[in-house]
Amino acid sequence: MELPEKTRFSEWFNELIFTAEIMDVRYPVKGIYVWMPFGFKLRRKVYDYLRSLLDRDHEEVLFPLLIPEHEFMKEAEHIRGFEDEVYWVTHGGLEELDVKLALRPTSETAIYPIFNLWIRTHADLPLKVYQIVNVFRYETKHTRPLIRLREVTSFKEAHTVHATMEEAENQVEKAVNLYREFFDTLGIPYLIFQRPEWDKFPGAVYTLAFDTIMPDGKTLQIGTVHNLGTNFAETFDIKFETPDGDHEYACQTCYGISERCIAALIAIHGDNSGLVLPFRFAPIQAVIIPVLFKGEGRERIMERAEEIKSELERRGWDVVIDDSELRPGAKYYRWELKGVPVRIEIGPSEVENNTLTVSFRNDKKKFEIEADKIHELTGMAMENDDRLREKSRRFMEERIRMCGSIEEAKEHAGKGVALFGWCGKTSCGEEIENRLESTLLGILKGGYNAESPGECVVCHENAPYVAGSARTY
Amino acid sequence: MELPEKTRFSEWFNELIFTAEIMDVRYPVKGIYVWMPFGFKLRRKVYDYLRSLLDRDHEEVLFPLLIPEHEFMKEAEHIRGFEDEVYWVTHGGLEELDVKLALRPTSETAIYPIFNLWIRTHADLPLKVYQIVNVFRYETKHTRPLIRLREVTSFKEAHTVHATMEEAENQVEKAVNLYREFFDTLGIPYLIFQRPEWDKFPGAVYTLAFDTIMPDGKTLQIGTVHNLGTNFAETFDIKFETPDGDHEYACQTCYGISERCIAALIAIHGDNSGLVLPFRFAPIQAVIIPVLFKGEGRERIMERAEEIKSELERRGWDVVIDDSELRPGAKYYRWELKGVPVRIEIGPSEVENNTLTVSFRNDKKKFEIEADKIHELTGMAMENDDRLREKSRRFMEERIRMCGSIEEAKEHAGKGVALFGWCGKTSCGEEIENRLESTLLGILKGGYNAESPGECVVCHENAPYVAGSARTY
After folding, report:
1. Nearest-angstrom CA–CA distance, A322 and A287
2. Which bin fits B471, alpha (ψ -120 to 50), beta or left (φ > 0)?
3. What's residue A120's pLDDT?
């Protein structure tokens, strides 16, 4: 029942997910979980926001889950990247299927045979679509709710098609900016890396990834943007007629975000008392607690509570009144656990003085405002979110260390992200991974300012890049 | 390219779905289709509305797709009902799974093992949840987009748990009323039948179903509401502690709607020119067509078109301006095909006289309004929808015949719904099905007023019920 301290991150996270009613972890298949009503409300608010960002210049579509084996097997690199973790449907009813069907681990091979039909001429380009779907990975490693799943329930994947490589590169930049806006609003700080060759998306020309640092110092990949060049276009014969009448392969990008964004939201803002949620995304944004004493104006207090609730709801807030029989302390505990950003207490003195006693979830300091100034609360809640963001940002930056030597980087391994100069050679990259027992995240591309110290941390030759490494989820 | 006449319903429907860009039917697996951007916008508007109805007193959740064989096999009747049409996942990567996993054909066996954990006491009841998910049926019959699918992409299923059978029955009534409101707003007329014993949901005590009559006279089941009694509760051991400290099995209901609601929306309102959509659900609610003549105030006309667009958008409309190079006739054709409810033409005389030339999609009659009265257009569009509803209602009622004899019913078979007296005996029901080469839809429970003629159409004994039959999808 008691939540472990956040310093015991793994236990804290697993316990919080369940007790705050985000996911039920007791579903009888490994790595597969149930979204509970409260968790689903959080998911809805986060994904409605993500959708609104994409709707600016993408169209939503819905492609099938089942991919026939022959399509799935067309792109050689792609299948090598996924063959160990694809679920296969082999039977329909009591019959064996003629063609095995893969549960999509991602949808390139479901979508691109249709892009082949949709794209005829340059006038059909650019094409930008997205979908929010469930995808499947037969994970053999340790699974964990929201982080490592066999059914990823909430995969937002966008797919774009362009006439030139330059336009595809521009789209990669736009996608990165869109993801920046998304994570900035959630208050999830990130580093952006170009993944090394051996860790890019199977079939991509290059992969950019957003990593955040979790409370235990390990990084979590929370978003990826891939430039596919013409690799898939050649496999699925996606060609367009140019204004000059030539036929050329199209250039493609794809980019994805999963429910790991919710995992990061919970992990990064939460504290020893439970969830801490930015105002905009909290399923319940305010709880009103009537402070009732026997015989002392119970009716007037409840009436006042209802008035305040209506007033806030008119402003678009999601509000509950907790008039249960619990002691005030138990009520505080319950709503703190659920990360309700604003708590409002109304007792006899508040009614008499026409005031409200308010506290925000993250600092828990009580203060009084005049009830007439209730319209100022939204702004205050927003400012409070800014402080939340600032705190998360600082937390991440404290866990990034620019390292002048491999020894220094080794000393920092497991504590966050080590940055260092890298020449770009695979052999030096492998040596870094081996000596640090870490993953080379790739070349730093954004989210943090750092200049290359000039020489590679391994070979001491010229290092044009700052690279990073960390233990990863 | 040319749409077949609606009298050739099957061809008309298949061609319209594709040319109006609702679904792409070229996905390389039988019975599995792609939601195109325009179709998905329609789906979003319809399902956002359905969601808003459920959100009044249900909570949204998300349960897994994959159901382990041992859970799926627990309820004997249920599995008999589905065993021929379940897809099975047997392999993960290159390994064979220890436990086969079913792709949910519906989610009772995924959800109820968790209800077993969620429900402890009477205070946990009633529980009302819903989810919108993809479900799978290995259909061996002829498949058809939106109607008979192997991947049902848009299954809204609600599941409720109650303390008593009476409360479960009340919930069935509430669900029926919710579905009435949904279909009434869509302008889809319906009959409500209690399905005969041999056609109820596998595992249910009884099933109520909404049937609509399609343009070819066949009925389409568009919604079902099931009272499960304690059948599943006994299988999954869903018990609660009563106020007296006893432990009792809970009573359950479930009810579902799939993308067949979109099929009905398209089939019922559409005409020889294409889609006809109620204003509220149309992805594009108005198209503005600038009528441009060479050199004649092109700029002013375009400016006016933009003003009108902004004005309508401020009122929440989805609007496009078609300033393409197409001839006016080709433009009309294009937007009629897509069911845009309101067309506004603006040429030199409209600019000069400060008027708009307006026509509605369903009657295509042009009329003029003063531009200052643009705020009246929303109301006019709503009234127009009422006429659409009324027309659909009449269409259905013309295809219902109360039949005094089996001969009369046989004469009506294939032309709509035949109603007649039924004693309720299975043997008479079977004889009706055989002689009419139709399906016995069950006992009429709503959507149409009819009194029993008093005697069974087969055995001529006392008939307490009006029953219906039809050829069905």
Report:
1. 7
2. beta
3. 97
Q: Which of B93, B113, B138 sits opposite A92 (nearest CB)?
A: B138
pTM over 0.95: yes
- At A47, the pLDDT band (50, 70, 90 cuts) reads very high
Instruction: Please check whether residues A438 and A358 belong to one and the same domain.
Output: no
- Pair B247, B137 in one domain: yes
- Search chain A and give the residue with CA nearest B134: A65
For A31, nearest residue in chain B (alpha carbons):
B64
Nearest to B62 among A28, A94, A153 (CB): A153
What digits encode the pLDDT tens for the residues A298-329? 899 999 999 999 999 999 999 999 999 999 89
Are residues A85 and B93, on separate chains, in Cβ contact within 8 Å?
yes
Q: Which residues of B touch A151 (CB under 8 A)?
A: 64-66
What is the CB neighbour count within 10 angstroms for residue B243?
Answer: 9
Q: What is the pLDDT of residues B241-281, one digit of tens each?
A: 999 999 999 999 999 999 999 999 999 999 999 999 999 99
Q: Residue A39's pLDDT band (boundaries 50, 70, 90)?
A: very high
Looking at residues A246-267, what average pLDDT do you find? 98
Q: B255 in a domain, yes or no?
A: yes
Q: Are residues B406 and B370 in the same domain?
A: no
Compute the nearest-CA separation of B158 from chain A (Å). 13
> Where does residue A140 rank: exposed (0-12), middle (13-18), buried (19+ CB within 10 A)?
middle
User: Does B172 share its domain with B321?
Assistant: no
Q: Which residues of A touch B44 (CB under 8 A)?
A: 60
**What interhelical angle do B165-186 and B37-55 show, nearest 10?**
140
Tokens representing A73 are 């097997």
Number of residue pairs across A and B with CB atoms under 8 Å? 151
Q: Assign A399 a pLDDT band (cuts: 50, 70, 90).
A: very high
Lookup: tokens for A260: 């790991």
Low-confidence residues of chain B: pLDDT under 70: 1, 295-296
B113, B209: one domain? yes
Is residue B203 a contact partner of residue B78, using CB atoms and an 8 Å limit? yes
- Among the partner-chain residues B37, B66, B110, the one whose CB lies closest to the CB of A60 is B37
Chain A residues whose beta carbon lies within 8 Å of the beta carbon of residue B85: 92-93
Which of A269, A299, A325 delimits the end of a domain? A269
Q: Residue A27: give its domain's CATH number.
A: 3.30.930.10
Is the same domain home to B115 and B140?
A: yes
CA-nearest of A375, A301, A387 to A341 is A387
Q: Helix, strand or coil for residue A199?
A: helix
In a domain, B275, yes or no: no
Residue A147, pLDDT above cutoff 70: yes
* Min Cα separation A100/chain B (Å): 10
Please indicate, yes or no, whether residues B209 and B291 belong to a single structural domain of this protein: no
Distance, in Å, from the CA atom of A213 to the CA atom of A220, rounded to the nearest integer, reads 6
ipTM above 0.85, yes or no: yes
Whether B281 is in a domain gets the answer: no
Instruction: List CB contacts of A297: < 8 A, sequence separation 6 or more.
Output: A348, A351
Residue A322, domain extent = 284-380
| pLDDT, tens only, A225-251 | 999 999 999 999 999 999 999 999 999
- Let me know whether B21 and B77 are in one domain: yes
Residue A296: its pLDDT value, please? 65
Domain CATH code at residue B445: 3.30.110.30
The CA distance from A152 to the nearest CA of chain B, in Å, is: 10
Identify the domain boundary among A325, A346, A380: A380
Nearest CB to B66; choose among A32, A85, A90: A32
Can you tell me which residue has the tokens 């009006």? Answer: B466
Amino acid letter for position B392? S
- Contact A89/B85, CB-based, under 8 Å? no
Residue type for position B177? N
Q: Is residue B279 part of a domain?
A: no
Query: Distance (Å) from the C-alpha of residue B34 to the closest C-alpha of chain A?
Result: 5
Q: Which of B32, B67, B129 to mutate to test the interface with A (most CBs of A within 10 A)?
A: B32
User: What residue in B sits closest to A82 (Cα-Cα)?
Assistant: B93
Smallest CA–CA distance, residue A71 to chain B, in Å, is 9
**Domain count of the fold of chain A:** 3
Q: What is the pLDDT of residue B227?
A: 98
